[in-house]
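Class, carefully examine what follows:
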Amino acid sequence: MTGIFPPGRSSDRRPSGRGLTPSSPTRPAPRAWHHLPGRSWPGRRVPQPARRERRAMVLPAGDRPGADATQALGALWDYRVYARRWVFLLVLSLLSFSNATLWLSFAPVADMIAHHFLLSTEQINWLSRVYLVASIPSGVVAIWVLDSVGLRWATIVCAWLNFAGSVFRTLPFMVGGIQDPFAFLMGGQSLCALAQTLVVFSPAKLAALWFPEHQRATANMIGTMSNPLGILVANLLSPALVKKEEDIPMMLGIYIIPAGITCLLATACLLESVPPTPPSARAIHSTSEKFLDGLKLLLCNRAYVVLAVCFGGGIGIFSSFSALLEQVLCVRGYSNEFIGLCGALFIVFGVLGALVLSLYVDRTKLFTEAVKIGFCLTSVVCVAFALVSQLQGQTLALAAICSLLGLFGFAVAPVAMELAVECSFPVGEGAAAGLIFVLGQAEGVLIMVLLTALTVRRAEPSVSTCQDGQGPLDWQVSMLLMAGLCTLFSCFLVLFFHTPYRRLQAEASASCSIQEDMSPATMDREPHPAATP
């Protein structure tokens, strides 16, 4: 197992190991630690404790390598965590938050934006839709950047793209005489859309490189859930800022502030892609496969393909739900204020559910069970929404259903990303999480097109509060199809997804090798003087 021996560890048990010579029987620092592009881990030697001290630190051979064992082995072999990992996570979370606010900043005030710039509603919708379209081709590039260039430079480039896009959108107000303001608005949104793929793929990578085994799911959750929080703030802040058309420049300027602060923090505070010393044995092997080789391994991994299709379908369903919620409920007479409340409950309870479930999974490591149960509960609630959304006057029931849909559905997202990394080892975290997101965006576009294509105009009078001026739509068939797809993905996942936790097994194997090396019998043996490569 190349790369699991700590720097400076004498390895007389492996006389044929790479890097051993008759004059230097000591194994060098693992190549996987520092040969990768974007890596800065030095191959320094760690001082060995005295033989008596090492004997005292040996763990019982039968212990399961849990959190306590991991911490003890980390102390023994210089696996360390650094407080600045939280700074990196803060910058990444702020970047994801800012990018999400820029995504949906126009949608809540689309009518005023359209009237002010003399644009059509379809053009305004494209300012948000460009995120979905751009993420499909740019997602593959983002996977390569994360696994090849390094997390630090990927985050800095993402922050500058995000900031440049936020400034580019305001040029129609800064520069007079612009004939086509839509080109600047779309150009700014496109730059932000390119930044989205980098920031969405990064939490799993950051968790693996900087956080110990018992904090990875929590760190992934914090980075992932910053995005829906940004969506929530954009839906609340844009209508509060824009009371009349003259307020549009102020709104665009305010959204520049978090993008600028995050860009400054990323440039000034992120000094390295990886910590000086790894937090776990797995971090040494992060991104151990080349880009194209990693993609081939993912496509040949049956468990990963099943998870990618099902979880990608879940991403598509949730994207469609968020985009179509207002159109579905206004047909039955629900006000925009109530629909906004349902959207807020959907996100708030989703973040709370993700926090609780991530903490639970960090302790128990029940990734598969948590994802399968979460998917099944989400399917039940999705069926309930499809039925209740077609009734009038069910405000309490709809508010509860939207809360439960976020609680069960959103909670699964960060855990499913961690599970994707577990079942795809040794493929890099960027590729494992990124390919699922790209597939989810593609499925989201297909599902949204299919749901809108199945709608029909209602001929009979209704209590509709829709203000599109074209008559209300009948979403009954579309909502039943959405519930059916959610149920289908859940059943497929439960029946066909089975996988070992390959990353945890690799860490456990490394721990067992260390325990065997540190046994008293091994300690008393001297290195063989004739060890040869």
